[in-house]
Specification:
Layout: H1 2-9, H2 11-31, H3 56-61, H4 65-75
Helix pairs in contact: 1-2
Length: about 80
């Protein structure tokens, strides 16, 4: 609560502090080294298959339920934390 009273009694102090933060922020961001973040190999899973039982017109008319339900099962499995 004390900071609210000080800011009401001395508003210019807080305006100057806000301006200093706005001026200093780009300088600090530009001078911060970019190698502070480690290189991480993010796991990626790709799934692909072919189905030769339908031509493209027949496939377009059918709903992709088996594919969607299997993908849903894979996404709801326990994930490592």
């Amino acid at each position: 609560m004390w900071i609210a009273k000080v800011s009401l009694n001395r508003p210019y102090t807080f305006i100057v502090l806000a301006l200093l933060i706005l001026i200093a922020a780009p300088v600090v961001i530009l001078r911060t080294p970019t190698d502070i973040f480690p290189d991480i190999n993010i796991p990626v899973v790709s799934i692909g298959w072919t189905y030769t039982g339908l031509n493209s017109r027949s496939r377009r008319r059918t709903r992709p339920e088996p594919i969607t339900s299997r993908r849903r099962q894979l996404s709801t499995q326990a994930r490592p934390t």
